[in-house]
Amino acid sequence: MNEGTCVGDKAPVAELADRLVDGEVSTEHDVLAAQRTDEAYLTPSGWPLCSVYARSTADVVETMRWAARHRVPVVPRGAGTGLAGGALAGDGALVLSLERMTAVRELSVDDRLAVVEPGVITADLARAADERGLMYPVDPGSASRSTLGGNLATNAGGFRCFKYGVTRESVLGLEVVLADGRVVTTGHRTTKGVSGYDLTGLFVGSEGTLGVITGATLRLRSKAAGPRATVAACFPDAAAAARAPLQLARAGLLPSFLELIDEVTLRAVRAYQPLDLPGDGEALLLAEFDGADAGGAAARMGQLCGTLDAAVTVTTDEEESERLLSVRRHALGALERMGRTMVEDFVVPRSRLGDMLTEIRRIAARHDVLIGTVAHAGDANLHPTLLFDRGEPEIPARVWAAADDMFRIALRLGGTLTGEHGIGTLKRRWLRDELGDDATDVHRTIKNALDPLGIMNPGKVL
Amino acid sequence: MNEGTCVGDKAPVAELADRLVDGEVSTEHDVLAAQRTDEAYLTPSGWPLCSVYARSTADVVETMRWAARHRVPVVPRGAGTGLAGGALAGDGALVLSLERMTAVRELSVDDRLAVVEPGVITADLARAADERGLMYPVDPGSASRSTLGGNLATNAGGFRCFKYGVTRESVLGLEVVLADGRVVTTGHRTTKGVSGYDLTGLFVGSEGTLGVITGATLRLRSKAAGPRATVAACFPDAAAAARAPLQLARAGLLPSFLELIDEVTLRAVRAYQPLDLPGDGEALLLAEFDGADAGGAAARMGQLCGTLDAAVTVTTDEEESERLLSVRRHALGALERMGRTMVEDFVVPRSRLGDMLTEIRRIAARHDVLIGTVAHAGDANLHPTLLFDRGEPEIPARVWAAADDMFRIALRLGGTLTGEHGIGTLKRRWLRDELGDDATDVHRTIKNALDPLGIMNPGKVL
Which cofactors go with this protein (chains A, B) (predicted)? Predict the structure, then answer.
């Protein structure tokens, strides 16, 4: 530990290091530099005081007691893959890293649950469940690197939410260390349970502002039977592609993956790899079905998209399927090769997906920003990527203006500011517009009640 | 309005009546007598002050402002079908009936949602959704009489939770009048959304102790395709029947209905109607499958139950299916013909369903109480019905002792006090045993923050 690089106020970091059971404290410049920010690439003002690597709930308890005593702001941190600035740490903050709490404490096939520590990598749990014939369905884009703790803090979504729900729908209970160091367990080991308030739901998605999640009981599901089936449908325009999910829903078709990729993004991917798609349309819809009726459902979707003038491929061949789905997987990487990016995340009511895509095109033209959009189409959760020059020292004003337009229009269409990335610091300025004054005050009331000193991830969300 | 029958303190009820926009105030003895209690049949001490029939959110706002000004406790009330005493009103309370707020404000097929007022009967929404090709899946036993507001307040479950989830899983957003009369909207019109804390989840299941739900945006689903298929399996003993759901889960079979009926209950139903079951076993498992693969899944379940020594019927014939499922539907009525009843509701981890059934048999013997048990078997949510003599003026001590034993054992097995009926007044005394001191204190902190005067349904839950 190098106290010499310690920046911030005069809190006795050495005292904290003595109190930890298995954890470690670091004040090294490189550690702090890496842990100041996340994948939103926003820069916090100031510099963190130190970083704690917790190895146990006891470490987190000691850290929170110390932080409360010395009024040090605490920023809980997983893998740092967040996209909204929720893990930014500046101004004398303590970075509380949970990434070394990596135990899967239990995995029960009969109770269909796993008890995990927050540092477990999302894909590692998915693999462990798969090996036991089960499924952990939540599949964020960063699953190979993100931690479950981070997924819980942001209520992460991903590719399979339309069928299997977001992180919240897979959480049975939590272990949480409160701002004053008390440890509470919430929820149940059972799927159902209504004893008391839904504290589990309150902590999930609260972005570290109400407490530190040190454990979670997660619901696992039966692995879908049989081979999967994939549909790729090229639509003449984005509006037609946006209508298809509504028709699928009317027909009772429920894909486990349903992604829309717009023309700008398709161009970017095409510059990166050859595309062998069923047609040359402006918008691509990719779907995957799992379960016993996967092939039948995919065939029905194919017919339905055909009636909407799409050129369609339906396949159960694994290699062809992988090739088709890779178009979506490479979308962000392909866009990133074109410049610096700001990846957005908001949701509109399903019926307004087409309208929103049209609005995004107008916004791009109005502010002279290239925008490539992909969407979790079943839930109308859009991810427009705003591109700008790598040489720009900061995010340019026209990019912020375009983002601002998008958020306001999404809200006007009945949507919400964020579907899965969170508010963090990135969207704080718009939150009151969505919630209204009274609901914002209720947030503040709850925050003050659970964190009266205001040390839990201050400046985030509210 | 008859002020002469007004009982309680000296709050000016006439002033309240003047402030209501469309609502009505009643102090009639018969109205109050009917609204003092619910289907838990517990008797509150004292007598309510008056009853308000709200017709609009504005009425609820005026009522809460008046109640806050005069420190009058408010008991929100739907149809009064609750089974835990959450709607008991005594001691000068104001009964706030939402049952006249019955509008379905919107039903959108493309956005797959309904915006409802709290007085809508559950089955009425299910029917309205069905007519538009959609499904509202939450199906509590009292669906033909219960209101959605009551379902939301208790986070009601029912028969289809194993596949489709409890009420919470179908709520996108709420309109809530707070204890001070402010109106907040929570949640979204979209399925996904992580802007701010999950206030929706916090109010759902809070049993009227945090605010009054005056509106809800509910998620609708696609109606399951094709004919349903039913399985009836008679097992030689309850333990074997309890193992079957675990095997079903391992095989990836997900029925939309999966009920276990024990020997005592089967005897009661048999005394009431002839039973034409596939065998004479001690325990019956009834299942229904919906969706494109219903027939195939039912056949696979039939085979699987056969390997567990069950005598099995599998059918897609609607009449035969109705006849089989009626065994479960008539279970409680049949038990009620045998005496006065206390219907219990708790959950154990799936793997402990058999153990809990064994424990219930021991408890029945130990306390000399006849207990008939049905269970939502997929979620291991048990409903033991404790029987006692109609002549008893109160619930006898041995019945309470048996209930106490059941709760303690359910908790010891890793379960929870209530799966869908709620805590109300019935289970308050056990809540701290389940939550622990610190989590109970967090409940109290949140309650005090949102209801500092303590007028929202006091004496319930906490």
Answer: FAD
For residue B204, pLDDT beyond 80:
yes
Chain A touched by B217 (CB under 8 Å): no
Cα A317 to its chain centre, rounded Å, is 30
pLDDT tens-digit readout, A164-187? 999 999 999 999 999 999 999 999
Q: Cβ–Cβ of B194/A109 closer than 8 Å?
A: no
Say if CB B264 and CB B322 are below 8 A apart: no
Cβ pair B252, A222 in contact under 8 A: yes
Contacts of A168 in chain B (CB under 8 A): 198, 201
Are A125 and A136 a contacting pair, CB within 8 Å?
A: yes
Task: Evaluate if residue B395 carries a pLDDT over 50.
Answer: yes
Read off the amino acid at residue A388.
F
> Could you report the predicted ipTM of this complex, rounded to two decimals?
0.96
Residue type (1 letter), A74? V
User: Which candidate from A112, A250, A449 shows the least CB-CB separation from B133?
Assistant: A250
B137 vs A contacts (CB less than 8 Å)? none
Distance CA A239, CA A360 (A): 12
| Contact indicator for A258, A284 with CB cutoff of 8 Å | no
Which chain B residues are within 8 Å of A186, Cβ to Cβ? Answer: 439
> How does pLDDT run across A367-421, given as a tens digit for each residue?
999 999 999 999 999 999 999 999 998 899 999 999 999 999 999 999 999 999 9
Q: What per-residue confidence (pLDDT) applies to B145?
A: 97
Element (H, E) at B171: strand B171-177
Q: At residue B29, does pLDDT exceed 90?
A: yes
DSSP-H helix ranges across A57-147: 57-70, 122-131
- Alpha carbon distance B360, A420 (integer Å): 44
Which amino acid would we find at residue B27?
Answer: T
The pLDDT, as a whole number, for residue B61 is 98
Nearest-angstrom CA–CA distance, A447 and A437: 15
Q: At a CB cut-off of 8 Å and minimum separation 6, what does A31 contact?
A: A51
The alpha-carbon gap from B217 to the nearest alpha carbon of chain A, in Å, equals 12
Are the C-beta atoms of residues A95 and A47 closer than 8 Å to each other? no
Structural domains present in chain B: 3-97 (3.30.43.10), 104-222 (3.30.465.10), 229-330 (3.30.70.3450), 333-423 (3.30.70.2740)
B80 — phi, psi (to 5°)?
75, 25
Match 């703790």 to its residue by tokens. Answer: A149
Mean local confidence (pLDDT), B46-65: 97
Distance CA B48, CA B30 (A): 12
Using the Cβ of A185 and the Cβ atoms of chain B, whether some distance falls under 8 Å is answered with yes
**N- to C-terminal Cα separation, chain A:** 34
Tokens of A240: 């037609």
Q: Which of A58-62, A292-296, B95-99, B223-227 has the lowest mean pLDDT?
A: B223-227
Q: Please report, rounded to a whole number, the percentage of residues in chain B having pLDDT higher than 70.
A: 98
Tokens of A122: 């999302």
A420 touches chain B (CB under 8 A): yes
Whether B159 and B228 have beta carbons less than 8 Å apart is answered as no
Give every CB contact of residue B3 below 8 A, 6+ residues apart in sequence. Answer: B13, B14, B27
Q: So what's the pLDDT on residue B9?
A: 55
- Residue position matching structure tokens 């078709």: A253
Out of A184, A188, A416, whose CB is closest to B193?
A: A416
Other beta carbons within 10 Å of B308: 16
